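quick one before i forget lol
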Amino acid sequence: MLPVILTMPLSKEHRNLIEQIYDLYYGTMMSVANQILKDQGLSEDAVAEAFVKISRHLDKFDDVSGHRTRGYIVKTVKTISYDLCKKINRRKEEPDDFLELTPDTNINILADLVNQESYDSLKDVIQSLPEHLKDVVFLYAGGYSHEEIGEALGISYANSKQRLSRARKIVKKMWAGEHNGE
């Protein structure tokens, strides 16, 4: 993978930074991606995409081996992996392209608009959750069990359930406040 990454148009300094990041974090990046995606090929894709994104922000790295750099790299891989999970789950839910769909004569456009606005509003509320709660919500919504979530995030089954419960309470409270004009 490193030779492919190094074919990107980078200065010599940035090329050296990418090599250092690869040497220090490739194993961690693959581990994080594998915990979420559970597929070697998809994990490699996520890590490659993360390297592309990281290469755009190399000037922000003060210390390649520092905690902030590691945190940024891990968060980048997590985000890309979760996005990839969502994409895959969406594809599974899409109807077959070859099926002929008959138009629904009972479509209520106003109801659809209200549902879309509610969905967008709820999505914003969930996005505002603390990272540790948001991770559990997205994985659970993606169809993962509490055992799988616990394994992916390095927490217990009970902790996964507790975090989801806390997230639900926060979302309900924020949702109620948003719809009551608070």
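fyi The chain is about 75% helix and 0% strand.
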